[in-house]
Amino acid sequence: MTRSLISMPGETVDGGFDVLQLRRRIDDIDQSIIDSVRTRKEIFGQVQRTPTEVGGPRVEPVREADITNDYHVPFGDAVSALAAALLQICRG
Q: Which helix (H) or strand (E) holds 31?
């Protein structure tokens, strides 16, 4: 069995892991992601107000490409859809 370097609370005596505890950790991570997306959307709205109030563009394609690349580098092609969805969520 491959061991993770992440601390695993709930390790059992036989060296396995408590699946229910691991699922709770995943749920906690998911909630953290949801909270982070909510906060990102709020901040994006604040950033977006200034350029649009002075007639600037609502979307900056170069910046969005950089953001997509930031997700692509550690995770590969499959994450492009995630980055696009995140950008769309934040645009409103």
A: helix 19-53
Q: What is the dihedral of CA 59, 61, 63, 67, to 10 degrees?
A: 100
Residue partners of 67: CB distance under 8 A and separation at least 6: 83, 86, 87
Q: Is 59 helix (H, G, I), strand (E, B) or coil?
A: coil
**CB burial string 54-80: b at 16+ within 10 A, e below:** eeeeeeeeeeeeebbeebbeeeeeebe
How many Å separate Cα 65 from the centre of its chain? 16
Give me the tens of pLDDT residue by residue for the chain, a chain 92 residues long. 455 545 555 555 556 778 889 899 999 999 999 999 999 999 998 888 877 677 777 788 999 999 999 999 999 999 999 999 999 999 87
